[in-house]
Amino acid sequence: MPPRYMLARNYLVDGVGKNELGTLSFDELWRIHVQVTSGFRELLFELMENPRDRLVNGGTGSVSLLELKAEITRRLSNPCALCERKCMIDRRKRIGACRLDEKAYVHSAFLHMGEEAPLVPSGTIFYGGCNFTCVYCQNYDISQEYPRHGKPVTPRELASIQDLLAGKGARNINHVGGEPTPSAHIIVESMLYAHHRKPQLWNSNMYMTEELLEVLLDIIDIWLPDFKYGNNKCAFRLSGVQRYMDVVPRNIRKAAEIGDMIIRHLVLPGHLDCCTRRILEYIADKLPADRILVNIMGQYRPEHLVSRYPSRWRDIARRPRPEEIEEARRIASSLGLCWRPVS
Ligand code: SF4
C-alpha cells in the first residue's frame, strides 16, 4: 500500500480551483475537508483490508486533498492554533509558548537504530521546540534551551531530507523533536514535494488541536505517541500543560482508530499509581488494545531542571527502581497488553 500522503496527493477535490484555495475562508476550507475526508477514509479502510500498491484517484478537481490540508495547516499556524495551548499569535512577529517563530528548525536527521525494533532503521528528523515544558526533559537542549539553533528549512528542503533518508534505507520517516506539532505547517507542505514511498511517522506528545489531528489522520501512517500522565495534576506540575486528560487521550484514541500505533510510556519513579497504572488501564479499556503495541520505557533519569534543582522535584529526582519497572510490566501483562516485542 502506498504511504497515505501519496494517496492524499493523488486524491482530487471536486469543485475547487487551484487559484480559489487561498481565497476561501477557513470555515469553507474546513467544510470541504470534512466532506472529502469521509470519502478518502472509506478508501483508506478498504485499502487496509485489501492492500494494493497503486495510487487511486478521487474526484475531478484541480486541487488535491493534500494541497487542501497544506492550506488548512498553514492557516492553523497563523494565528497559531496548532496545539491546544492555542497561543493565537502571529508567529512571524512573536515567539509562541513552544519558543518557535514561524519556521521549522531541523537539529539533526539520520537513520536511528535506537527506536522500537519494528521501526528501525528509522529516518528520524529532530525538530527544535516543544509545547511542553517537562522539567525532566531528556532532550532539553533542542526542545527548550536552544530550539532555534537548528537549520531553518523550507518545505522543499524538508522533502529533500526525507527523500535522502529514504534513499539511505529508512523504513519510515519519523517526525520528532522536541515536538513536531509546532512545525506541522512546514511538515505537511513538505509532503507536496517528497518522492519517497515510506510511511510517515508522527512521534509526539499528542497535544495538537482537534483540527490539526484531523488533518494528520489521513497522511500519517504510523503513530508513536508519548502517553506520559494519568492525571492533570502531574501533567501540569511536571510538563506545564493544562487539561492533559481532556486532550491527549482524545487524540490518541482517534489516531488509534485509523492508524498503526506504538504507545510509549516512560515510567516515572513514584508515579506507578497516579500515572502508569491509569494509563495502562486506559489503553486496555478504551483503545483497540489488540492492535496496539506498548513500549514500557524504563530509562528515565533525572535531567534538565530536575538534575539542577532536585529538591524542587524530590519524587522524580532518582531513577526508577527495578521493582517499579517490573510492576509496570506486570500490570501491562495482567491487562493483556502487548509490550514485550517493543519494550
Ligand atoms: S504550536 Fe507553539 S505557538 Fe502554536 S499554539 Fe502551540 S505552543 Fe502556541
Describe this entry's structure for a reader:
This protein is 39% helix and 14% strand. The protein is an alpha/beta fold. It has helices at residues 4-10, 26-49, 65-76, 140-145, 155-167, 184-190, 210-217, 232-239, 244-258, 272-286, 304-308, 322-334; strands at residues 12-13, 63-64, 104-112, 122-127, 151-153, 172-176, 200-204, 222-225, 260-266, 292-297. It is built from twelve helices and ten strands. The chain is globular. The chain binds iron/sulfur cluster. Iron/sulfur cluster (SF4) binds next to loops.
Number of strands: 10
Radius of gyration: 20 Å
Q: Give the N-to-C terminal Cα separation.
A: 27 Å
> Helical region count?
12
Largest sheet: 8 strands, mixed
The overall pLDDT, averaged over residues, is 96
Instruction: List each distinct ligand once.
Output: iron/sulfur cluster
- What fraction strand? 5-15%
Low-confidence stretches: none
Structural class: alpha/beta
Shape: globular
How do the strands of the widest beta sheet line up side by side?
Answer: 5-3-4-6-7-8-9-10
Helix content: 25-40%
